Amino acid sequence: MSPAVSRIARLLGVAAIPLAILGVFFALPVVGMVSRGFWADGTFDPGAVLGVLGRPRVHRVLWFTLWSASLGTLLSLALGLPAAHVLYRRRFPGVSVLRAALLAPFVLPTVVVGVAFRQLVGESGPLGFLGIDGSPIAIIAGLVFFNASVVIRIVGGAWESLDPRAGEAAAALGAGPWQVLRTVTLPALRPSLVSAASVVFLFCATAFGVVLTLGGLAYSSVETEIYLLTANLLDLQAAAALSVLQLVVVTGLLLAAARARRTPDPALSRILARPRRLSSGDLPALGGTALLGLLVAGPILALVAGSLRHDDAWTLANYRALATTGEQQALIAPVTDALVTSLRTAFDATWMSLLLGLTVAVVVTRRSRSVSERRVRSVLDGVFMLPLGVSAVTLGFGFLITLDRPPLDLRDSPLLVPIAQALVALPLVVRTLVPVLAGVDDRLRQAAATLGAAPWRASLTVDLPVVARPLLAAAGFAFAVSLGEFGATSFLARDEHPTLPVVIFGLIGHPGPMNYGMALAASVVLASTTAAVMLAVERLHVPVGSF
């Protein structure tokens, strides 16, 4: 066996366990769910699945998903880019606090975002006079609220590393600020812009809680339509068709983003550029940042204010009611129990995603000694990003119909929800750790090996000090994402042990002012918890890598 083949074999051997886990808990449920649609009554019938795409309602769903995701992406870029410039290229008092506040929506639970916007634009809300409650405008605003922070985080990290000398040279030759931005800065940021746009479009197209909460039954995206078809109508053929179409589109987006990441960036330096003080030329960017700040602060303030109101009086009654089951026994378990369940589930999902994500990051970042080995690592990197491209609803329903018989009878296992949430958080963990490990000089490991250190000892000596802070940041991201995960959990959470997002959605679906007030208070508790986690992560100053 040649050395190149031997190295590839060892690489695949190390990746075998993560691949097996992904195969059992991702590929098997997704294939199982999709195959139920293709095999009707034991007969392979792909024509029926393809015929679903000819339904008028499916056309409306696809069109709404396309234009809403496209508009949400454009607006997220329009508001996120000025904020990225201000937060990563300029310094002023309170910049770290403002950055944490504008980045918090990155992991806020989608169901909380939906409830907050309903409170803001509903009939009794501060902006109720606009009459946009339940309209596409509210949905788009919710998508921008949720995804502008993605643009800030991805593009801001690249902008922070942009070599300022090219722009300074263009300015010295007479170029104005807008000309420098158009001819120097934006071309240098193109890979991060493409990556951010691809991820934001993906998140907008697969937004479940936002569309379900704000759109109800009047507007449905592919994600919410899959939920309706599986949970309410049991139309697995239609759900399979939409799931396959979604997977194909998202895989294409991930490939485009990966190609953009491989584009060399000569304007990016290895040393972070020193931020400059604000000047009058930053007024347009400050205006865009202020507009985004209002978009972020408005729903949150409306949510907090609403949670403190009951019977037209300021009170903590909604929060005290969290220890009850609500009006007319709306809940089986109190909200406080659901919070404990969410925290415990998020803890389990976090350590699972960290173990798997760290292994994947190590596998895909080690130095390749041949073109074939580099291609294998690139393929493995893409494979472990696939959970981004599959509906969490599809994954959750697939768990129910495939992991229900020996030797994988996990339907009643308390680990089922954490496993699903760990898979949802896995791409974020991998993208946080990969840039850090990829930046470690392999010669340091070789030097440690030359001095007699075993491979594991060399990794502990060389990699651990570098990856410690990013590992904590990845843990924070995974914990926050798991706390707010709603798509898969809505299928898998048991009635007696629901998570907090499931309880919030249940409360807003039950009539009664106390139930709605409890939903607002529970949303504040959940948002505060995730925001506290994000604030701790932001203090680590670890950016998320491109997807």
UniProtKB/TrEMBL annotation:
Biological process per Gene Ontology, one example term: transmembrane transport
PROSITE patterns membership: ABC_TM1
InterPro entries registered for this protein in UniProt: MetI-like, MetI-like_sf
Keywords for this protein: Cell inner membrane, Cell membrane, Membrane, Transmembrane, Transmembrane helix, Transport
Organism superkingdom: Bacteria
Topological type in the membrane: Multi-pass membrane protein
Sequence similarity: Belongs to the binding-protein-dependent transport system permease family.
Name used for this protein in its record: Iron ABC transporter permease
